[in-house]
Each structure stands twice: as C-alpha cells, then as structure tokens.
Design a protein that fits this description.
It contains twelve helices and no strands. The termini are far apart. By secondary structure, it is mostly helical. It has helices at 15-30, 45-58, 71-80, 86-99, 103-109, 111-117, 124-142, 150-153, 161-172, 181-189, 198-208, 211-227. It has a single domain, classed as Orthogonal Bundle (Endonuclease III, domain 1). α2 packs across α12, α3 (71-80) packs antiparallel against α9 and α6 (111-117) packs across α7 (124-142). Bound molecules: iron/sulfur cluster (SF4). Iron/sulfur cluster (SF4) binds next to loops.
Length: 266
Amino acid sequence: MEKPKSPKPAKMPRASAAEAKKPALAKKRTAGKPPARRVKIPYSPEEIREIFRRFSVQRPEPKGELEHVNPFTLVVAVALSAQATDAGVNKATRALFAVADTPEKMLALGEERLRDLIKTIGLYRNKAKNIIALSQRLVDAFGGEVPLTREELVTLPGVGRKTANVVLSMAFGVPTLAVDTHVFRIGNRLRIAPGKTPEEVEAAFLRIIPEDYLFHAHHWLILHGRYCCKARKPECQRCVIADLCKSPEKTCDVPAPLVELPAQTV
Ligand code: SF4
C-alpha cells in the first residue's frame, strides 16, 4: 500500500494553475507514461457504494451554487469562479447577466464595462479579457452556442478541463467529475481517489464511483468538502461516513445521523 499523501489544500492547482501544468503533463504522456497512476485503495466496492448512498440520502438533489440562466452564463460564471468564492461571483453576475446573457450581448457590452461589473472578483482584468475572447470565439466558431464536447469546450479562452467538466455536467447533464479544491482534497485525504494532479484524482474517482451515483457525485463531494470535511479541520463528529472513512486525519469513528439536510445556501 502506498504511503498516504497528506494533501495540502493550499497547493491544490486551481483552474489557472492546473491549466498551466498541462504542457508538462502532455510531455509526460508522450514519454510513454500511463495517463493516471493506479493506486490500491483501502475501500471495498461495497464501502464505496455505501459512502455515496449516504451522500445521496443527505442531499438527494444537490445543486451547484453558481447562478446562471443558460449554458453561456454558466461558462462565464465558472470561468469567473477560479480563485473566487461562488457567493462573490454570484454577487457580480446578477447585474452582469441582466445585461449580457449571450455571447453577442457580452461583445456589445465590451471589455471595459465588463471589467467594471466584475471588479469585485479576483483577477478580474484577466477574466474580463478571457470572457470577451471566449464570447468572440463562440460567435465565430460555434454560431453563438456553447459546444457540447469537452474537446471543443477547452478551445475556449480561459476554459480548462475543470470548467469544461462542470459545464458538461450542469448544462448538458453529462456525468463527469470536475475536480476542484474540495474534490482533490477528499480524494487524497480519505485515500479513496489519491492523485498528485486533478486529472489523476478525476481518473481515480471515475474508476470507483458506482455508475448510478456518478451524475451527482461532483456536487456531493464538493458540498461534503465545503461543509463537513473542511480543509483546515475536518468536522468528523458531523460526518455521516465517519465509520467508513479511512483518513489518518479523522477524529471520530461514529457516523452522524443520516438525515436529509436542509437546502444549502451560499
Ligand atoms: S470522518 Fe472526518 S476526515 Fe473522514 S470524511 Fe468525514 S470529515 Fe472527512
């Protein structure tokens, strides 16, 4: 058994950093290495199914917290959410989407006014540039529609694999697993889907998640990470999988009562 890696959430490659790593990953692959490491995990298939069953009881219909009104505004919201909170993004996009909910309207709005509307969000100058560029590409190459495949989505400026996976899942209902900081941490902390990169963690999760739980798995993992298995200090006494979890960091073996949770709020 490989020694468990202690995940350091602060070092999780965020969207931009992950994208910056892609050339190195591509280079490794062309050198003949497998796309993902296969690490033996300390969970049986039954335990994994039980973990996701409990998540499904807690949150039967989990929802993303980024507000959007169509696939285009979802792409914009996800692109804006890198190194920003969903709450902060929603605050800015309410006014933005009221005036620009299509690529054409975004282009008509222009980079300067867009910058002004999103200036409360980190890295807003760069993000504004990317959103104008991706709107232009959507108009030029896709007739103003958001494309339906990951291969096409990642050709949009500012859109990496994580953003593409979120859009595929939330806008088009494709079961994918976007790995953000919470999913990455859970995969490693619980030793359930260990990996050094978001792509490795994504591949590891996709190998183990039962098919019938895959569609909601992304949101379950994010919400579990955000509200219970928190980065600095996991709240194990509130955790419904405390008896199943095999994290060296866990502080409690008794699972919390399995009940449906109230609707989440941002
Ligand atoms: S028991 Fe603790 S470490 Fe394990 S999943 Fe729950 S909160 Fe995270």
